[in-house]
Write a structure and sequence with these properties.
Blueprint lengths: L2 H11 L12 E4 L9 E4 L4 H10 L3 E4 L16 H11 L3 E4 L1 H5 L5 H9 L1 E9 L4 E9 L3 H10 L13 E10 L14 E14 L3 H11 L7 E6 L7 E13 H11 L6 E2 L6 E11 L4 H6 L4 E5 L14 E4 L2 H5 L2 H12 L5 E3 L11
Parallel strand pairs: 2-3, 2-15, 3-4, 12-13, 13-14
Antiparallel strand pairs: 1-4, 5-10, 6-8, 6-9, 7-8, 10-12, 11-14
Helix pairs in contact: 6-7
Subunit structure: Homohexamer.
GO molecular function, one term: metal ion binding
GO cellular component, one term: cytoplasm
Length: about 375
């Protein structure tokens, strides 16, 4: 199995197109065609993680955070980033990062937090914009069903919990083949009228390439008329953060104690308690201050995230409780998610959870 094979499996869970524009995801170090001896999964790729991979004779590291975030102009070993990259290159170890691609996946970071905390019926808190597209194409009537089936198989026509969704309209298509054309139907130099079906299907933006490939492969015409438009509809499957409900409502303090225990948090920084029951909860792994307004709009009782600044706690404004449990703490179970996923996909392959400590923050 090659690096490319492993990354293809990971991108079924979190396509790289899900990542934010500022991010640096994908294969950061290594050769796509290298044969993989084993995969080590970590939250951060530090020197001790690379040493662990060397010791285990694993030559691929799957890391949540990217070790290379901004451009590297030198590789002299002057800082921890350069030392990690140099050591990985010297030992033929590939490094792959998922970061915000996994943040935006509805089976990723925030889904795992919801699982750990027992939050049910979770929905995306901030849907990613511009991720739903619509294909409109035209097919001769005898070929319409075959084309629609091929498009469905490629991932078109999926809406939430439904698949094979489409809308078709019958009509007359016209065209005149030029002298160099090779028309499937009609004659060169003559305007031809064909009974056609207009086919409309929505799809998730990361599937565009495979959907167009299916269209070109299965359509009988030499020149295929089609349009792709980007929709503003809310995508319930891709985006930052999640919110849902607890099975049983809890007192605020009891809820925060439960969060502290289950998330292994040394301390929880929170805004003023409101003396209300907690039933509806929002979560966002990593730095989540930008989602406070979305949490308010979702009318949650508590918003769990990290890296809140002093003045951002004022933004609670008596509408909800803001709880900062720590950056590492919100993302720590991401490693388990990835290991479980890879073992399920590749059951007879060397895959391990890193034992190296990578949390840079200590508490007294």
């Amino acid at each position: 199995m090659t690096v490319k094979d492993i990354t293809k499996i990971l991108e079924e869970l979190a396509p790289l197109s899900y990542a934010e524009e500022f991010d640096n995801v994908g294969l950061l170090v290594g050769d796509h065609n290298m044969n993989v001896t084993g995969v080590l999964v970590t939250l951060d790729t530090l020197e001790n993680v690379v040493d662990e991979a060397i010791k285990k004779d694993y030559n691929m590291i799957v890391s949540f955070h990217p070790i290379i975030f901004t451009g590297l102009k030198k590789l002299t070993g002057a800082n921890y980033v350069e030392r990690v990259v140099l050591k990985a290159i010297a030992n033929d170890i590939a490094i792959y990062s998922m970061h915000t691609a996994l943040d935006n996946s509805n089976m990723g970071v925030n889904a795992k937090i919801c699982e750990v905390l027992g939050i049910q019926n979770a929905k995306i808190l901030i849907p990613k914009r511009g991720t739903i597209k619509k294909l409109t194409t035209y097919a001769p009537m005898p070929n319409a069903d075959e084309i629609k089936s091929a498009l469905f198989k490629a991932g078109a026509g999926e809406m939430g919990k439904y698949s094979n969704c489409s809308f078709s309209t019958d009509g007359d298509g016209s065209f005149k083949a030029g002298n160099d054309a090779k028309p499937t139907i009609g004659k060169i130099g003559e305007t031809h009228i064909e009974k056609e079906v207009q086919i409309n299907m929505v799809f998730s933006f990361e599937k565009e390439k495979s959907i167009l490939s299916a269209l070109f492969k299965n359509h009988p015409y030499e020149e295929i008329a089609y349009e792709i438009t980007t929709l503003e509809n809310t995508n319930q499957n891709i985006g930052m953060g999640m919110f849902g409900v607890l099975d049983t409502e809890m007192d605020e303090e009891a809820f925060l104690q439960m969060v502290k225990k289950r998330m292994n948090a040394a301390v929880i920084r929170h805004s003023k308690l409101l003396d209300k029951k907690v039933k509806k909860v929002a979560v966002l792994g990593g730095s989540g201050a930008f989602a406070i307004s979305a949490a308010k709009k979702a009318d949650v009782d508590v918003f769990i995230t990290s890296d809140l600044k002093y003045h951002q706690f004022y933004e609670a404004e008596g509408q909800l409780v803001l709880a900062d449990i720590g950056h590492f703490e919100t993302e720590q179970f991401t490693k388990d998610l990835l290991v479980d996923y890879l073992i399920k996909k590749i059951p007879n392959f060397a895959i391990s959870l890193s034992e190296s400590i990578t949390n840079p923050i200590k508490y007294l």
